[in-house]
Write a structure and sequence with these properties.
5-stranded mixed sheet, about 475 residues, 2 domains, single chain, two-stranded antiparallel sheet, about 60% helix
């Protein structure tokens, strides 16, 4: 148990620099999902009613991003809070692990935190998840330290955590890691920090409008877009099974399956000769993570594994602690590489290249598009990219649709139907686009349905094809 030597510090600095560069290189030029557009819009106009961003507002993340937006582009400004927080998290965990385990374990954990593909890609996205993950993990480490200064900082971070990502308030259970004699005061500090930013928040946001919007948003989350068993009509057992399948398919099975047992074993094997000699700490950590895991499985959108991102540091620290206690150097290296492979999303290429949206955006600015849409009433139906395209092309009638049925219903209810309709292939594959639409059982017109293919990763957008 000793501090890092000069060679190890140099290696750590190199890892931090390379990790930072990789994250910056992966920053997308354009936001592509509904949530990403929400956060991007919030940089110029903060309005929760208009989903800039959506409820509950994420004021901590937006303020941090706006600060960076004074010097950098929108995409980079939104990525930098999480990216810089990742560097701080690595330093904090390295110091903790070097003090209570070994410098070698500290560098192994730094290796995982810096080069895990899922952490690199999520940090580059214009979302609050990475910043929330880092703040939660830093608060956890400081709570384990147990001294008064660390406990105060940890409590303030935990109180501020819901301002970054509201559901991370479930990690307030980390207070159980504080020494018993300080636990009450830590709880008061957390509550005080929480109330402080809430007062400032509602000083600039109308709380009645906020709460009204919140009710609609919460209802939609639990009844419309897959946020609970109520919306997907699955039993709790089926949803648990689906959760494991989805996380495994997305290569994020590592945190949810290994975080708790590896934290337990790592604490027992590697901390047994340190001040953390009792496995009680590991059991408490497991208890603290349980509410977040249950929330993710039963109340979140399972097709977004980023919702369990906060568990990754716990898993990586548990892995390195366990390996340091019982593994040879070659075995350790093999397991570390395996852990990195588990962190690679199956759609890695799509995440990095962001296919389709950029091509469609460029196409809608082209002379070819102006020729196709000249002197005509045109409606364009796309999927998740609708808000981005509407933001970039405010004069075009761009609408969001999930399925072809949704397009059909919208067109049938139109008072002034468009002359030409374009439907992206993410909404309707070629095989389901008909030649005619029916209004009240009568053919009202033969639409010229064109398919905008935006599922290509090439730099050129193919011309629309008639159907």
């Amino acid at each position: 148990m000793s501090a890092l030597n000069t060679r190890q510090v140099t290696l750590l600095i190199l890892m931090l620099l390379v990790g930072f560069a990789l994250r910056v290189l992966c920053v997308p030029q354009l936001p592509t999902t509904w949530d990403e557009v929400d956060f991007t819009s919030a940089l110029s106009s903060y309005d929760i009613i208009e989903h800039s961003p959506h409820f509950p507002g994420y004021p901590g993340y937006v303020i941090a991003a706006r600060g960076f937006a004074l010097l950098f582009s929108e995409s980079l400004a939104l990525a930098l809070p999480g990216t810089i927080a990742s560097l701080v998290l690595t330093i904090v965990i390295v110091n903790f692990t070097a003090a209570h385990s070994s410098p070698e374990n500290a560098l192994r954990c730094a290796f995982l935190l810096n080069f895990s593909p899922i952490l690199i890609l999520e940090a580059a996205r214009p979302m609050s998840d990475t910043l929330a993950m880092c703040v939660a993990a830093i608060a956890w480490i400081l709570m384990l330290q147990g001294d008064k200064k660390s406990l105060v900082i940890s409590a303030i971070l935990l109180g501020f955590l819901p301002a970054i990502k509201a559901d991370h308030g479930l990690l307030w259970t980390l207070v159980f890691l504080a020494p018993k004699e300080f636990r009450g005061r830590v709880c008061l500090l957390i509550l005080g920090a929480f109330l402080a930013w809430m007062v400032l928040f509602f000083a600039v946001v109308n709380w009645e409008l906020w709460w009204t919007e919140g009710q609609f948003f919460i209802k939609g989350h639990f009844t419309d877009w897959g946020g609970s068993t109520q919306s997907t009509h699955e039993s709790y057992f089926e949803r648990s099974t689906i959760a494991i399948e989805i996380f495994a398919a997305q290569a994020l099975a590592l945190p949810i399956v290994l975080a708790l047992p590896l934290t337990l074993s790592g604490a027992y094997l590697s901390w047994k000769d340190s001040p953390f000699s009792s496995p009680t700490i590991a059991l408490k950590t497991a208890f603290c993570l349980t509410p977040m895991i249950l929330w993710t499985i039963f109340a979140q959108n399972l097709d977004h594994p980023r919702h369990i991102l906060c568990l990754v540091p716990f898993a990586f620290l548990g892995i390195t602690m366990t390996l340091g206690a019982r593994g040879s150097s070659h075995f350790c290296f093999g397991i570390l590489v395996f852990a990195l492979m588990l962190g690679i999303p199956k759609d890695l290429g799509q995440v990095v290249t962001r296919p389709g949206v950029k091509e469609l955006h460029e196409f809608l600015k082209s002379e070819r598009w102006r020729e196709l849409s000249r002197d005509q009433i045109v409606t364009i139906y796309v999927g998740e990219s609708a808000r981005l395209l509407k933001r970039e092309h405010p004069l075009l009638d761009i609408r969001r649709a999930r399925t072809w049925s949704g397009v059909k219903v919208d067109l049938e209810s139109s008072i002034n139907p468009p002359d030409r309709v374009y439907v992206s292939s993410e909404v309707a594959p070629d095989c389901v686009i008909p030649h005619r639409l029916i209004y009240n059982g009568v053919t009202i017109r033969s639409y010229h349905i064109l398919l905008l293919r935006i599922d290509t990763a090439t730099s050129e957008l193919p011309l629309p094809s008639d159907h």
